[in-house]
Amino acid sequence: MYQMKCGFTMTLAVIIIMVLSFLFYISKHQVCRYIAPVVSPSENMSELQIQVNTFLDQINKIVPRINDIQKNKSTCARNCKLTIINPKDKYCVGDTLIVQVDMFDYLRKRKSYGGDFLKARISSPELSAAASGKVEDFKNGTYHIHFTLFWEGKIVVSVFLFYPSEGVAALWNARNSWYGYVAYTGKFRKQNKKIETKCGFERDNSKELCEYADHRDEEYFFCVKPWNTSCDSFTEIRGSFTKQSYLTKESRSLFDKTDIRLEIPNAFGNIMVVNCSNNLILNPRCKIGMELQYPSGHFIKNAWYPNGCSIQTYRSTDELNRCMQGKSIYLFGDSTLRQWIYNLQSNVKTLTVFSPYGDGWASQLLGIDLKRNIMVRWKRHTSPFLSGSYQSFREERTIPREIDLIGGHENTVIVLNIGVHFRPHPLHLYIRRIINIQRALKRLFLRSPETKVIIKTEHFGENEKEYEMNSSFHGYVQYLIMEQIFKDLNVGFVNAWDMTNAFNSNIIHPPNTYIQHEVDMLMTYIC
């Protein structure tokens, strides 16, 4: 009898262990490729959700599907080849140079599919000149990179394999399979106490939740409800990386520091470009409504020259004061747009910048010049937003809701950017927010078509240690979506994705010497 009881107990223990192991496995590796966006149970498929799904499907088609990842069969930069299509002894300014890239794996076998993430640029270091190249993927292991030769002189061609297609597939799958890269913590106030609780975009039906819903825009955020505490007492929020990984051991091997962000060998050397025409082309001033281009311009002698239009530089305080007089400038975005307000403060000495609330580095900033009636305001876009420290939740609003509160005027300027804080989250969050911003801008233009709106794209760059959750590839995907959604709006673009690539900046926050070029574009649009 004792042996039967003992055997039954052991069998039961084994079954429990197996069940727990399975539950842990599926929590770490969800069976579906994508997590479903949070939608209220009473809703059918809305027009907005259909749009979100359409963009997800479009991006899914350009990402390679690779199930069996083996490093020796992945793209190896050292074995890839660059050749020039129809090479010439010399090229003229304005010509297009086409460079072919053929991909090979570590076994020196030619790749048969595309999807690699490449960075391409031309430069002349002695002229402090540089420009981006546009990548064309033939989906068979061959790429063409199109370079516009903007200046004369000796030009260096540089093509970097940032991530192999196998790594791209792993990053794409990981991003859209869970919410585990970022942990959100909320603070609730109860009398004189502050209570911390878990928050996020994922609905946990096993717990009592506070739901912060925008039903019109179909945006939802949740916090575990503290016991005997009102959901209205939510005061502060913090978002930070969890340092968890969704990648398998084999997938992580694709991102060894010695094998990524490598330059592909160039056997053809430098390109000589001469000026074949003495005709002086006078480009019109850049204005709102012009098409977003890539490449959108080039640097020469550390000055930015947009493609097809001219930029105006405002350096003296008097020039800037005349330009900005009477204007209300709203900057809604992340810390890369926050750099603008500090740039303006350093150049416009009469602008007093302060934080009205002073509750954390990401609290809103206000710049005032009472004499000239100038107002500049920076406010972070709401979650997803990573700050590391607690930030106020009291005036938390999405950019569409902020736009809805602005009446608009000929002296009203709105600058928008979102991007890097969305990279560690499933892509549907970014798509939905961008579509909602587009809808808010359409409403704004109905009541105030003279309001000037500038879109700043995100910067090319990443933290090398955060390649999984903060990859430039995620930024590239978001750039493609943003381009499609805003292309028909009467807005101005500051193509920071292109500009930082040409500038050869691989960090999220470039130096002020670069930021000045972005601010010059702003002033060109609004002055």
Q: What's the SSE blueprint?
A:
Layout lengths: L1 H27 L18 H16 L18 E4 L6 E2 L3 E7 L14 E8 L4 E4 L1 E4 L4 E7 L4 E11 L1 H11 L6 E9 L2 E8 L8 E6 L4 E6 L9 E8 L7 H4 L9 E2 L7 E4 L22 E4 L2 E4 L10 H8 L3 E6 L1 H13 L4 E3 L10 E5 L4 E7 L10 E2 L6 H6 L7 E5 L10 H21 L4 E5 L10 H4 L1 H15 L5 E3 L1 H7 L9 H15 L1
Parallel strand pairs: 2-15, 18-21, 18-23, 23-24, 24-25
Antiparallel strand pairs: 1-3, 3-7, 4-5, 4-8, 6-7, 8-14, 8-15, 9-10, 9-13, 10-12, 11-12, 13-22, 16-17, 19-20, 20-21
Helix pairs in contact: 2-8, 6-12, 8-10
Would you kindly provide a written description of the structure presented here, covering whatever features stand out?
- This protein starts with a helix and ends with a helix.
- The longest helix is centred in the N-terminal third of the chain and has 27 residues, at 2-28.
- It has 3 domains: 71-165 and 259-274, Immunoglobulin-like (Sandwich); 182-241, no CATH class; 297-526, SGNH hydrolase (Rossmann fold, 3-Layer(aba) Sandwich).
- Mean pLDDT is 90; it is low at 1-34.
- Helix 8 packs parallel to helix 10 (472-486).
- The chain is built from 12 helices and 25 strands.
- The protein is α+β, with helices and mostly antiparallel strands.
- It has helices at residues 2-28, 47-62, 165-175, 249-252, 317-324, 335-347, 399-404, 427-447, 467-470, 472-486, 496-502, 512-526, and strands at 81-84, 91-92, 96-102, 117-124, 129-132, 134-137, 142-148, 153-163, 182-190, 193-200, 209-214, 219-224, 234-241, 262-263, 271-274, 297-300, 303-306, 328-333, 352-354, 365-369, 374-380, 391-392, 412-416, 452-456, 492-494.
- The chain is globular and about 75 Å long.
- The strands form 5 sheets. It has a 7-stranded mixed β-sheet. Strands 2, 4, 5, 8, 14 and 15 form a 6-stranded mixed β-sheet that branches. Strands 11-12-10-9-13-22 form a 6-stranded antiparallel β-sheet.
- A hairpin with a 4-residue loop joins strand 6 (134-137) and strand 7 (142-148).
- The chain crosses the membrane at residues 7-26.
- Keywords: Membrane, Transmembrane, Transmembrane helix.
- Residues 304-527 form the NXPE C-terminal domain.
